[in-house]
């Protein structure tokens, strides 16, 4: 039994949802998002509560049950509060600057890196060494943050690079004499 799938998803005030077949569409103050569930689960709306129930007792149906409930909960969270990832830049001379929908990164290469920010995601730089990625789609926000981090992932010897805020980098000792 899925413990996650059993919990209903409550719709806060200002959020509306509609189900047509296997597709649920959620509208909120930040925008509109939709999700198409597989045929293994049934989506239902009772007032301001969305429920997900499996259509059988097969392993696949139970897997899709919990996953579909989580996807619906992420839709609701996305259109109400949105998702946010924060990155920190560590290193001498490493800095970032957001200009419109382009993020300019100075990461020690012979050239500046111009990262084009996709639509639906906003990237801001409160400081030169901090990057904030925000949006209503959790997967898209995480993917953009991972692509930015990929340009200079943190290394274990000096700790230089781009890392998530609060991420611990296991440090190694240098060469011993």
UniProtKB/TrEMBL annotation:
SUPFAM superfamilies: Ribosomal protein L6. Residues 12-82, 91-164 form the Large ribosomal subunit protein uL6 alpha-beta domain. Keywords: Ribonucleoprotein, Ribosomal protein, RNA-binding, rRNA-binding. It comes from the Bacteria. Signal peptide: none annotated. The keyword Ribosomal protein applies. Pfam families: Ribosomal_L6. One of its GO terms (cellular component) is ribosome. Belongs to the universal ribosomal protein uL6 family. HAMAP family: Ribosomal_uL6_B. This protein binds to the 23S rRNA, and is important in its secondary structure. It is located near the subunit interface in the base of the L7/L12 stalk, and near the tRNA binding site of the peptidyltransferase center. Part of the 50S ribosomal subunit. This is Large ribosomal subunit protein uL6. The gene is rplF.
């Amino acid at each position: 039994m899925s413990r996650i799938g059993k919990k209903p998803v409550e719709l806060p005030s200002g959020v509306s949802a509609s189900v047509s077949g296997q597709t649920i569409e959620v509208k909120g103050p930040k925008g509109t998002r939709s999700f198409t569930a597989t045929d293994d689960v049934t989506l239902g709306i009772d007032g301001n509560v969305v429920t997900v129930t499996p259509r059988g007792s097969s392993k696949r149906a139970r897997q899709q049950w919990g996953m579909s409930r989580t996807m619906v909960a992420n839709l609701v969270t996305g259109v109400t509060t949105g998702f946010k990832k924060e990155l920190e830049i560590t290193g001498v001379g490493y800095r970032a600057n957001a200009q419109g929908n382009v993020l300019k990164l100075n990461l020690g290469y012979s050239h500046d890196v111009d990262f084009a920010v996709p639509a639906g995601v906003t990237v801001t730089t409160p400081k030169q060494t901090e990057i904030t990625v925000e949006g209503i789609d959790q997967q898209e926000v995480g993917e953009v943050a991972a692509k930015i981090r990929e340009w200079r992932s943190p290394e274990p010897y000096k700790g230089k690079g781009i890392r998530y805020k609060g991420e611990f980098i296991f440090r190694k000792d240098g060469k011993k004499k």
